[in-house]
């Protein structure tokens, strides 16, 4: 049977590849001979395979969700609660009335969250907030009692049972007038305030979460669902939205701009204030600020954009726009359209709009403040909320008011006729007022019109989606710029006769242009506007100051700043003349100028001016005033730039302390000061403090903005750097990993910041010896860049080059060469062969060629480099000629052209002497290099004067025991040693060692090297006892310098052990090698280190006659090295030859000549210790 | 090392019987994963068996990735587990159609159901058992491809055979199974 089956399969395999049916039948008839059944069967198998090409192919068993019926229904137990009846269906799930029996019998509300959430996470988040929730005890808050997971795994929450209707429904049903509505609203604000004081943010305030119940005939609002939004992590996402808008109604409508941002992290109590503002708006007008229909229809990003950017009409404006509906809305408020409009217009407008400000810093600070202002209105007291800078404007003359008003009205007419009419009416309605408060309001209102003119003006760009990259075939940024230009022209035409209004608009436009990155256009607008404000209102005008600040921002990172410095100086002079030296406005200009000095690297001037401003601001405003603190911060940064670190540190510390008090510990300004302080402390003696500060800063960022906010991640990155610098690379590495994950998750894999952290992470991996991980990270980064930008983008090219170098450093030279060659090809194609980046790649490539023994290719490459480099950097500003020339000379020698090497080195030395002078480091190195070249060419005598001179020059310049002097002294000694003149070499080595030991701050590793060199020289001089003594001394030094388990220890120990073995002290070497091997096996070391150590240990055992124990180690070591052969460089293959030689010795010693011969062959096949080097 | 990696390494070191201990673990994990996933998806959504299996792999083996050889054992177990889950499910459905079984299924018990129109899973399973008796490796290949959702290349690696071999064997086994399921052609005897 078996053979038949095999035949069937074999025949089938051929037959299925014959497409033509007749040909196939012919084939089958031929192969199957007389077996018609077999032919028929194979034919059928092939046919079935063809006909049912899909059979079993569909990626396995796709699995369909087979959703069973709802598990929760009345009568069912959920945890200890018995469900009684459904009482509501919300966006997040169903609410049931339920009965609790243990520990008390009571009725509760139980909300079962819709499927789609991980209940473990939900419950965990709830538990983390549980304590705070338990602290809340307020008559207008329904308490959340419990949370858990139902049998079917869905999360549920248990709450105090509230029987009521939503606040909006209640107010409309009862036709409550505005005042009664406001009274209820104040209660809600206070409830929210209570929660905020206990540290609980609601995050999902909306009418359906504010129920009104009757208590003895009195309506009592109850806020429900505290803690639930946070526990369910409900934030606006595409997914929640597509789950069904209807279910979520309210959520986007009541959502603050920062929530709509979707970072989902940067939410604080002021988000709740915003939602309360929406509620107030709805209580007043019966509509939400944004139309639910518009939001529903808008695409997801558009909807977010609307919430983030569009300014809703004021409540009174909305009322006017309601048309027919207005009658109903008024009736529900026990009013008529005219009366309702009048009562809302003005103060209630401002109150609502203040709470709805896009910038949460401009909203009410607390829900309590919000309530107080509503009460101000109810008690007919002046309200806090008002259009910005009104107080100042009041002091302006009546004439100006009229002109502003006229200008405003004309813009409105020009832009949005409908709005203009109602605004005009609004102004007229108040002209009859006489009391001072009314006068204030009038002025405020007029200004408000002006503000809204600006707003409307700005709205002309708002049909553009900033997330999209282009519209109508034009890049969005360019399109916006054009529209701004057009608006600038239009407005100037329309506003003739009112320069202030024009200036105000220019200021707005300037800010918009700046936001788009058109710094020059912004600068022009600020300059023009400033001139107008200065002439019409004087230098004390806040807008004039704003223009100067704007101009600084526009020019701060451009070359124009330097040219503008005199202009900034002028602003200070003007203010001093007009207002006096100590006027707050003068001080603002001074602060600005000091920053300009700082940015143009006039640090001394900057410091002097900051110091003066700080003194005056302290006197005028107090030490803790925000403006004073800004200057203090500026001065501290200037100190830091001037490297006056102790002063910088002291001042940063004070800034932090005072900002903590004035703004709070988590305020961005406080944290900015902290950040600079930490960086000021990033040097070896204070780095631990820097680490602690970064840690604190990180905690605060996390608390203020969440763990994955860009600022938090940026801070974490700094902390990682600090950890790494302070000798804790593992901690740094973990943190870099977190930054990378965070950025990838929040910004996407392709964001430059994510790529940056990949690069950091890769370096950290290399640092920690995790070469493979580092390479993988770099490969990934390159892949991302390629996909996003293509092969020739600057970023891709840089990453290609980096990856190539990384391969090389990891010993994967062949891959390095391939990668670098590709990088070079792309680079040349994109930027030309003489681009500095291409030159760098060529240099790396040449080094790689040399490593794999392709000196001719290296020569060709480096000759091209020298040519190209001279072209890219004609004056050789970076002084790279000498290093490139030196590389090329070495390549010449390797390529068997020593005479070219000598000539080139001589040329290099002459150039160095002529261009850099006789004492320059490069000149001295060129001398040593040339001397070595002579020595290698068998003419060491010609090198003698060169090494002696280099040594003498260094000694005269730096003193007899400087590190460098001793280095050159050893250089002279080595020169003599290598040319066989030990008598001259030994005294020099001895002297160098004596001086190294005698130095007041002995650097052990430096001494270690001196010991090593002298020991080597002693062996050559056949003074083994002296060499042994020095070798043991080396061990003592290593023990002193390196802690147990140190990553450097294996290398150092093997160096010592190698020499001990050579000196015949294998037993002494053995434990050292075992120690090194143990460290290597625990860490991910370079690929060849571990097998090399194994082989060496085997060698040490062999030398002690422990043959049996040595053999497996020697074999294992050799095989390990052999396996890694492809990944190691020619230089590093020396261990492979040695490993083979040890095996030869083993088999010779154990009398197995055939094995020995075999290994001798192997050893010869490998490049020996100096195979690539010249003969000694 | 967790249980699964320990078992995988035992198999690696020549204890094939350890595979028996692997199957229950993988089976449990797959059922749990499937149920959890299903609870989060809307009805009518499909889950990829591939994704489930890889998820299970990450959860059970995770960071101690033992390399391709051991991974092959894991996927073999996963494919077998997946086959059992699906076949059991098909049996229950068949029972349901026949009038027996339960009225409703609890969410926690939600089972993956077969997608694809007319595939008789029970018949396939019988044919697969026949094939397994004749040629174990081909049955294994079918399971890896069909139940664990591995690609030809991955399945070849898991079985330690060349991709071209896997390709030929896949074509043959697929046709063989289909013919076995369809039964004899009216006019032809079978070899």
Describe the 3D structure:
- The complex is a heterodimer of chains A (1176) and B (191).
- The longest helix of chain A has 23 residues, at 436-458.
- Helix content of chain A is 68%, strand content 5%.
- Chain A is globular and about 115 Å long.
- In chain A, α34 runs antiparallel to α35.
- In chain A, a hairpin with a 2-residue loop joins β11 and β12.
- Chain A has 1176 residues and is mainly alpha-helical.
- In chain A, the strands form three sheets. Chain A has a six-stranded antiparallel beta sheet. A three-stranded antiparallel beta sheet of chain A has the order 8-9-10. In chain A, strands 11-12 form a two-stranded antiparallel ribbon.
- Among the domains of chain A are: 2-51; 77-160, Phosphorylase Kinase, domain 1 (2-Layer Sandwich); 165-384, Transferase(Phosphotransferase), domain 1, CATH 1.10.510.10; 386-465 and 474-555, no CATH class; 560-680, Tetratricopeptide repeat domain (Serine Threonine Protein Phosphatase 5, Tetratricopeptide repeat, Alpha Horseshoe), CATH 1.25.40.10; 687-768, Serine Threonine Protein Phosphatase 5, Tetratricopeptide repeat (Alpha Horseshoe), CATH 1.25.40; 781-872 and 883-891, Tetratricopeptide repeat domain (Serine Threonine Protein Phosphatase 5, Tetratricopeptide repeat), CATH 1.25.40.10.
- Chain B is mostly helical and 191 residues long.
- Chain B has one domain.
- The longest helix of chain B has 30 residues, at 68-97.
- Chain B has helices at 3-12, 19-40, 49-60, 68-97, 121-134, 136-147, 152-159, 163-182, and strands spanning 46-47, 113-114.
- Residues 41-45, 97-118 and 187-191 of chain B have low confidence and may be disordered.
- The radius of gyration of chain B is 18 Å and the shape is globular.
- In chain B, α6 crosses α7 (152-159).
- Chain B has eight helices and two strands.
- The termini of chain B are far apart.
- β1 of chain A pairs antiparallel with β1 (46-47) of chain B.
């Amino acid at each position: 049977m078996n053979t038949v089956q095999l035949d069937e399969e074999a025949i089938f395999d051929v037959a299925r590849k014959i497409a033509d049916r007749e040909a196939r039948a012919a084939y089958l008839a031929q192969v199957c001979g007389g077996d018609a059944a077999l032919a028929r069967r194979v034919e059928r198998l092939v046919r079935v395979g063809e006909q049912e090409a899909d059979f079993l192919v569909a990626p396995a068993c796709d699995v369909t969700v087979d959703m069973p019926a709802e598990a929760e229904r009345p009568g069912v137990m959920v945890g200890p609660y018995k469900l009684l009846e459904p009482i509501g269906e919300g966006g997040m799930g169903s609410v049931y009335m339920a009965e609790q029996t243990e520990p008390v019998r009571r009725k509760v509300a139980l909300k079962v969250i819709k499927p789609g959430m991980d209940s473990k996470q939900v419950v965990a988040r709830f538990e983390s907030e549980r304590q705070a929730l338990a602290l809340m005890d307020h008559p207008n808050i329904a308490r959340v009692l419990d949370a858990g997971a139902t049998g079917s795994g869905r999360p549920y929450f248990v709450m105090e049972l509230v029987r009521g209707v939503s606040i909006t429904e209640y107010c409309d049903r009862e036709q409550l007038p505005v005042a009664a509505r406001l009274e209820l609203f104040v209660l809600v604000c206070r409830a929210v305030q209570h929660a905020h004081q206990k540290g609980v943010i609601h995050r999902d305030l909306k009418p359906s979460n504010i129920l009104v119940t009757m208590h003895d005939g009195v309506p009592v609002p109850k806020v429900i669902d505290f803690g639930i939004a946070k526990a369910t992590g409900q934030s606006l996402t595409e997914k929640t939205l597509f789950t069904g808008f209807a279910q979520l109604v309210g959520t986007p409508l009541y959502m603050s701009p920062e929530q709509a941002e979707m970072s989902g992290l940067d939410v604080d109590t002021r988000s709740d204030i915003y939602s309360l503002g929406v509620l107030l708006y709805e209580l007043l007008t019966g509509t939400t600020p944004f139309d639910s229909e518009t939001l529903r229809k808008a695409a997801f990003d558009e909807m977010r954009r609307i919430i983030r950017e569009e300014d809703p009409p004021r409540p009174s404006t909305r009322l006017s726009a309601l048309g027919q509906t207005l009658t109903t809305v008024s009736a529900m408020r026990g009013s008529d359209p005219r009366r309702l409009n009048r009562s809302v217009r003005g103060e209630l407008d401002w109150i609502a709009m203040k709470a709805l400000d896009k910038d949460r810093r401009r909203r009410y600070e607390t829900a309590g403040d919000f309530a107080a202002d509503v009460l101000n209105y109810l008690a007919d007291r002046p309200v806090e909320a008002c259009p910005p800078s009104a107080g100042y404007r009041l002091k302006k003359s009546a004439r100006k008011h009229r002109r502003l008003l006229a200008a405003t009205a004309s813009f409105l007419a020009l832009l949005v006729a409908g709005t203009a009419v109602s605004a005009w009416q609004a102004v007229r309605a108040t002209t009859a007022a006489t009391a001072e408060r009314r006068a204030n309001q009038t002025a405020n209102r007029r200004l408000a019109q002006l503000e809204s003119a600006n707003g409307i003006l700005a709205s002309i760009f708002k049909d553009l989606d900033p997330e999209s990259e282009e519209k109508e075939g034009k890049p969005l940024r360019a399109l916006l710029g054009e529209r701004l230009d057009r608006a600038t022209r239009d407005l100037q035409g329309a506003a003739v006769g009112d320069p202030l209004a024009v200036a105000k608009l220019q200021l707005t436009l300037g800010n918009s242009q700046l936001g788009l990155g058109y710094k020059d256009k912004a600068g022009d607008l600020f300059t023009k506007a400033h001139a107008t404000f200065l002439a019409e209102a004087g230098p004390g005008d806040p807008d004039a100051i704003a223009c100067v600040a704007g101009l600084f921002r526009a020019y701060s990172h451009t070359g124009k700043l330097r040219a503008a410095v005199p202009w900034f100086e002028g602003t200070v002079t003007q203010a001093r003349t007009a207002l006096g030296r100590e006027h707050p406005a003068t001080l603002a200009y001074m602060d600005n100028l000091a920053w300009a000095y700082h940015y143009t690297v006039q640090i001394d001037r900057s410091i002097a001016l900051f110091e003066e401003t700080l003194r005056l601001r302290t006197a005028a405003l107090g030490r803790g005033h925000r403006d004073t603190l800004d200057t203090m911060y500026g001065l501290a940064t200037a100190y830091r730039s001037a490297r006056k670190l102790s002063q910088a540190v002291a001042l940063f510390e004070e800034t932090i302390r005072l900002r903590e008090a004035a703004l709070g510990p988590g305020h961005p300004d406080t944290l900015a000061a902290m950040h600079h302080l930490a960086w000021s402390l990033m040097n070896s003696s204070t780095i631990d403090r820097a680490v602690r500060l970064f840690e604190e800063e990180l905690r605060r960022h996390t608390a203020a903005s969440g763990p994955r906010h860009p600022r938090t991640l940026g801070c974490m990155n700094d902390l990682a750097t600090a950890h790494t610098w302070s000798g804790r690379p593992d901690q740094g590495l973990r943190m870099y990993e977190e930054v990378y994950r965070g950025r990838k998750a929040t910004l996407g894999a392709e964001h430059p910041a994510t790529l940056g952290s990949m690069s950091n992470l890769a370096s950290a991996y290399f640092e920690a010896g995790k070469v493979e991980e580092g390479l993988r990270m770099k490969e990934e980064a390159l892949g991302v860049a390629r996909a996003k930008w293509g092969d020739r983008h600057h970023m891709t090219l840089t990453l290609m080059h980096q990856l190539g170098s990384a391969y090389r450093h990891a010993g994967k030279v062949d891959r390095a060469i391939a990668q670098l060659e590709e990088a070079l090809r792309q680079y040349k194609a994109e930027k030309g062969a003489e681009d500095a980046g291409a030159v760098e790649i060529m240099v790396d490539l040449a080094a790689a060629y040399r490593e794999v023994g392709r000196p001719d290719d290296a020569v060709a490459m480096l000759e091209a480099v020298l040519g190209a480099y001279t072209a890219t950097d004609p004056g050789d500003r970076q002084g790279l000629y000498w290093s490139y020339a030196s590389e090329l000379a070495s390549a010449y020698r390797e390529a068997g052209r020593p005479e070219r090497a000598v000539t080139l080195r001589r040329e290099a030395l002459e150039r160095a002497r002529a261009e850099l002078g006789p004492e320059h480091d490069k000149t001295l190195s060129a001398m040593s290099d040339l001397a070595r070249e002579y020595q290698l060419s068998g003419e060491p005598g010609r090198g003698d004067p060169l090494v002696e001179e280099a040594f003498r020059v260094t000694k005269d310049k730096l003193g007899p025991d400087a590190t460098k002097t001793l280095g050159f002294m050893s250089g002279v000694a080595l020169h003599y040693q290598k040319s066989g003149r030990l008598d001259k070499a030994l005294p020099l080595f001895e002297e160098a060692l004596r001086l190294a030991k005698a130095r007041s701050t002995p650097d052990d590793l430096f001494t270690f090297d001196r010991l090593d060199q002298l020991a080597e020289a002693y062996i050559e001089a056949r003074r083994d006892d002296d060499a042994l003594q020095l070798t043991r001394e080396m061990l003592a030094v290593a023990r002193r310098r390196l802690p147990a388990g140190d990553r450097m220890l294996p290398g150092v120990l093997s160096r010592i052990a190698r020499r001990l073995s050579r000196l015949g002290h294998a037993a002494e070497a053995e434990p050292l090698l075992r120690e090194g091997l143990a460290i290597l096996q625990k860490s991910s070391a370079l690929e060849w280190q571990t097998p090399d150590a194994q082989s060496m240990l085997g060698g040490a055992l062999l030398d002690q006659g422990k043959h049996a124990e040595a053999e497996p180690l020697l074999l294992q070591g050799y095989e390990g090295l052999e396996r890694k052969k492809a990944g190691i460089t020619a230089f590093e293959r020396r261990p492979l030859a040695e490993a083979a030689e040890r095996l030869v010795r083993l088999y010779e010693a154990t009398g197995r000549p055939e094995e020995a011969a075999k290994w001798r062959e192997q050893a010869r096949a490998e490049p020996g210790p100096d195979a690539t080097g010249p003969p000694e | 090392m967790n249980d699964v990696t320990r078992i995988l390494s035992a198999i690696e070191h020549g204890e094939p019987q350890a595979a028996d201990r692997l199957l229950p673990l993988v089976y449990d994990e797959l059922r749990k994963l499937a149920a959890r996933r299903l609870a989060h998806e809307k009805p009518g959504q499909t889950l990829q068996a591939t994704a489930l299996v890889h998820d299970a792999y990450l959860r059970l083996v995770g960071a101690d990735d033992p390399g391709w050889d051991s991974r092959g054992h894991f996927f073999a177990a996963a494919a077998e587990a997946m086959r059992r889950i699906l076949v059991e499910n098909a049996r229950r459905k068949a029972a349901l159609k026949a009038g027996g079984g339960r009225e409703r299924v609890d969410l926690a018990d939600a089972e993956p159901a077969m997608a694809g129109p007319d595939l008789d899973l029970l018949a396939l399973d019988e044919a697969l058992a026949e094939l397994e008796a004749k040629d174990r490796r081909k049955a294994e290949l079918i399971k890896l491809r069909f139940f664990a959702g591995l690609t030809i290349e991955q399945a070849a690696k898991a079985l330690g055979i060349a991709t071209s071999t896997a390709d030929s064997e896949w074509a043959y086994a697929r046709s063989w199974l289909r013919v076995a399921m369809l039964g004899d052609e009216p006019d032809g005897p079978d070899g």
